Amino acid sequence: MSVPTALAFVMHAAMVLGVTLRVVMARPLPGVALAWILLVAAVPAAGFVLYLAFGERRIGGRRIARVHAIRIPREDFLRRLESDRAAAVSWSDLPEAAATLDRLARAHDGFPTLAGNELELLTAAADVLTAIRAEVERARVSLHLQFYIWHPGGLADEVAAAVAAAARRGVGCRVLVDALGSARWLRTQWPAQLRAAGVQVVALLPVGGLRLLLQRGDLRNHRKIVVVDGEVAFTGSMNMVDPRFFKQDAGVGQWIDAMVRVRGPAVAGLLGVLLGDWLLETRADPASLEHASGLEPGAAAGAAAVQVLPSGPSRDGDRVVQIVLMLLFAARRRIVVTTPYFVPDEAVLRALRSAATRGVEVLLILPERVDSLLVRHASRSYFDDLLAAGVRVLLYRGGLLHTKSVVVDEYLAMFGTHNLDLRSMWLNFEVSLLVYDAAFVARLHALQASYLADCVEVDPAAWRARGAGRRLVENVVRLFSPLL
Q1: Could you tell me how many helices (H) and strands (E) the chain has, helices first?
Q2: Could you tell me the CATH superfamily of domain 319-483?
Q3: What are phi and psi of 2, to 5 degrees?
Q4: Is the pTM of the predicted complex or chain greater than 0.85?
Q5: From 84, 157, 229, 345, active-site residue
Q6: Catalytic pick among 102, 345, 409, 437
Q7: What is the pLDDT of residues 171-229, one digit of tens each?
């Protein structure tokens, strides 16, 4: 063996050993640990570099310091939400599982369930963008908009123009976008035009340069929130994009989304999540937001009980997994799930199979085509186990179904930005609503039923008969699913 070859072998062995020890001491999920060790062992040097960049949930020392700095103001805010007696929930009117789920979610993130909300489900992109623009045009005091992707073109530009007009007439406006997800929009004229009008525009989680040494570059802020005057809010799966102008060359069709318009006390919870991100990124003094419009719970506007569920990367990052598991185990009759990216935690996979095995009807609605080939293969590697347990898998053909929802029986739903994949549950900053309300659940069931009209169901026998080559590709990609 030549000296260069021996040196390369020793360096590679040192990299594998170093990463292995690091992973063992960090104690991630076993699947995540093994995937990284396998990658570093199989791809010399490049695997090691990828681990340094993406292997750990580093959010940066300064950001951690800011999290501690706003801890007390955050706790004060949550106490104000909880002390609002007018928004107290009558748990005796709901099944016992609802109160248990509330306690679990509150123990993790502190947000209480608040009664008295009106929820309007918006299911067409044009309707969503038109509704947001109309609320922006009516704004009197404050506007807050946060999106993972803001993409130029069509109705999205009309919303931007309406925000600029609101700022010029004296409305305080803040816009937060993810630096990576909205990179194209940030290179257009829109940020400069908005700032010239008086809008504060902030790019969340900047990437590149020395930051990659201090924080993981693919930890993204995936939240979608709009709050107008602290009285009306929107959240859900839809980015600030007009589907007619977005990813038209991806070969997946138009993106299909849903949003909910919220009125009532829960609006303050959504605004609190958004302003928390604002404080973390801008390092503004929390006292400057003490009297921000909408941080106090608003008057009752309806009958729905709603709990805001934010999540993000942390060492105890299985918070959302625990809540999803509680949802699935609470089911007695029916579970319907819609998600564009299905790469589940092993515990979630078992919970779906367990529900079907104990007689619960479980429907998993996925898009037939997604914009990530690796995710598509990884997702389909789970079908065998699900179909064998009796889960019905349905593939939507009307576009890229992007709505994220979990509906349990007739009274419980999770709706927002969380996908049933490892990235969404462990890495991204997300927000969803836990809704304890039969009327909203009925409307969400109706939306899911409309998706079924454009679905083809996966036949278990035909699926088992697919070629060995497809099985091999799917199962190999599944080995790396914790890294997708």
Answers
A1: 20, 17
A2: Endonuclease Chain A (3.30.870.10)
A3: -70, 160
A4: yes
A5: 229
A6: 409
A7: 999 999 999 999 999 999 999 999 999 999 999 988 766 555 556 667 889 999 999 99
